[in-house]
Write a structure and sequence with these properties.
Elements: H1 3-23, H2 26-42, H3 44-48, E1 51-53, H4 65-71, E2 76-83, E3 86-91, E4 98-100, E5 107-109, E6 122-125, E7 129-131, E8 136-137, H5 143-148, E9 154-158, E10 164-165, E11 179-181, H6 186-190
């Protein structure tokens, strides 16, 4: 599949997902998010992780604020901070330390940039769409793809079941997830774990 075909298919998929997100009720959104983050917390890789890179959810992404607050005093929780085309990492130190970021005003931690990439054990990653081969499609800016090349941590993609497809268009620079978690049952999710 050539690059222009991949770009066109990804654009169409983003429009489809946007419509599906808009159809989700606030209650469905929060209930599904709670199931997803609850399943995430049960992963042995998450349980054993000391340093977790999460994300502060924004506009229809799986809700992570409660998860972050819950674990912030038990693990070192890091969040992305966008600087131009680069994704930087800073430590979450409570809601009071959050400031509006450069990207869509998404809140991000103030404070020192975290650079001990080898110390990151687990990454929670949003996406527009995922597939059953653990491919991920983001917003198109490639922040995560560029950053994930630098670290060797367990990568958990999280999304709603309507964002998980048999296959999605993937390029050679797209980074595979180690698992993708939706609100589906535990047995179904196990099938998506990369061997």
């Amino acid at each position: 599949m050539n690059q222009s075909t991949i770009i066109a298919e990804k654009s169409e998929l983003r429009r489809t997902i946007s419509r599906l997100k808009a159809a989700q009720s606030p209650q469905e959104y929060l209930e599904a998010s709670a199931i997803i983050t609850g399943s995430l917390e049960m992963l042995p890789e998450f349980r054993s992780a000391k340093t977790v890179l999460a994300y502060w959810s924004y506009k229809g992404e799986v809700h992570t604020h409660d998860l972050i607050r819950k674990w912030a005093d038990k693990k070192r929780i890091l969040l992305p901070s966008v600087n131009g085309d680069e994704m930087l990492i800073r430590q979450y130190q409570g809601d009071d330390s959050m400031v509006p970021g450069d990207l869509f005003g998404i809140p991000e931690p103030a404070g020192q940039v975290f650079t001990d990439y080898a110390g990151i054990d687990f990454v929670i990653i949003p996406g527009i769409a995922f597939d059953k081969k653990n491919n991920r499609m983001g917003r198109g800016k490639a922040y995560y793809d560029r950053f994930l090349c630098k670290i060797n941590a367990f990568k958990a993609g999280i999304c709603f079941s309507f964002q998980l497809f048999e296959t999605i268009p993937a390029g050679e620079h797209d980074i595979l997830m180690d698992t993708v978690i939706t609100e589906v049952s535990q047995n179904e999710r196990r099938a998506f774990l990369r061997s």
